[in-house]
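QUALITY CONTROL LOG
STEP: pairwise intake check
CHECKER ROLE: data steward
CRITERIA: each record must contain a sequence immediately followed by its structure tokens, with no blank fields

ENTRY 1 OF 2
RESULT FIELD BELOW
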Amino acid sequence: MLYYVDLNATFVPLIMKHLYLFLVTILLFNVACNKLDSNDAAVIPQSDFKFSSGNNAYLTQVIEVIPTEAKSKSLDWTCDFGNGVKVSGNTITSIPYSYVKEGNYKVSLTVAGNTTTQNITVLPGLRSYQIHSKLSQDLFVSTEVAGNRKDIHVFRTIKANTLTDTAYSISTNDGSVKMIIYGVFTGKNNVSYSYRTSSLVPPLEQYKHTVIELKDDEPLYVNYTLNGKDIELYMPISELFKL
């Protein structure tokens, strides 16, 4: 007696079954590997950081090196402030520091063997300011911060409608600015006029930049001699150059 065997009915389903199991095994293996890689990446310590003040700081200003790694994480770290000072610890935290000398410094943070370096510029003062001239004429101007003779800044002639270069104050006092305007010019009929004023600008905040506006309504003392008599006038700057 002969038996007929349908090979397609017997072997093809079997092959398909094994092929399906093989593909499922490969898929599960890839998922497991990707998950393992993801977990491995998550535990690599990060040494990136930022400065609380940005990449500029004033003298004596307390800045913080702020790691991107999670705070309170138990990891060995070392911070090099680029001036010979290094601090270390074994728990991630913000690291405070202040510089006493101006300059450019390379700050490095090493976390569990990984190092990141960034530059910070320490400015030559405890505060800074500029004078924004909104005058219609050029004037000679100098400034003095909080009575400190070391904090005198002579801007020379300030051009009308311009912004001066930045001046830095090293005064540890309250930061009040005495703005002095003075000069001599020849008016109508060849009369020589001397002018001066001394105004006190509100105190400038430490570790901040301030723009001081100088306007045409700033009052001046004006002196001149006419027919042998000394005359003194008190007027706003806007009226000075009409003489």
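ENTRY 2 OF 2
RESULT FIELD BELOW
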Amino acid sequence: MGAHRKGRPGRGENSGSRRGVLVPSTAVGAALVFGAASVLYLSDNGQSDGGGQAAMIPEQRAGVLASAPPTPAANGQLSGEARLLSRQAASAGLAVAGQGQRTLPGVGAWAMSLLPPTTRQVVLVQSDGRDSTDNVITLWERADPGGEWFQVGEPISGRNGARGWTLTHREGDQRSPVGVFGLTAAGGRLANPGSLLPYEHRPDFYQSGSGDPADPFSHAFDYVIAIDYNRVPGTPPSDEVRPFGPAAGGDIWLHVDHHTPTRGCVALPADQIVPLLRWLNPAATPMIIMGNTQTLAADQLP
């Protein structure tokens, strides 16, 4: 969909991949390690960050401004975790809502097992069916590894690939990859709005649509967050390196909704992506879990 890779394969929103690609968020310069089931891991010490099969995460709609305070505990007081997270979320214009949960709703054992122990922020993207082109995005955070998860903000309505979801994404199939991926870099046509992730401001690269301000496609890449699918975590979204090769696709991003399904990316409303950029914190090893509900909820991949 993006003219930013004009004349080259793997343009924005096209992507294809081997089943089970996992690229968790880690420090730049980590070693590439291949694990079971063609899972790709990144590790500072050259060891696998996890085992078994890869999980892919559905994109969540993030950044809905919520004025309602977190739900108090049974004694009428917020828990210590909720108070801490409430202060942190407020800096991004968000609010913590609801009670803490030990696991993420609708996320099965295979996906939960692929979250790095250090992950404290998750963008959860869930679609009703394999062929669904729309989804619900929710943001989740915990104060400490092993702590309870709290929802941040309200559910967001998003879009994904024009042909739904797949565990075997390939270049040009117009399906979004199901799985669990890191979120380690951002960028866009517009200047950094306060992203805590490394931000690449490159107007000449992040071009799409006709350029007419009235054309929704012209704003699709105003802001993007790279999803670490078939890319090297920590590099700018414009980086062309594809660890599994061009046939597996790339340029799978969170970006501004253009009012139609995507070619593989996850899109959310323009007024939601800036709060998301301000909320995601590299120190929290943010991850995205995205896909159709049946696959995500399974204990094992089919």
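INTAKE CHECK: passed for both entries
DESCRIPTIVE NOTE, ENTRY 2: The chain has a mean pLDDT of 76.
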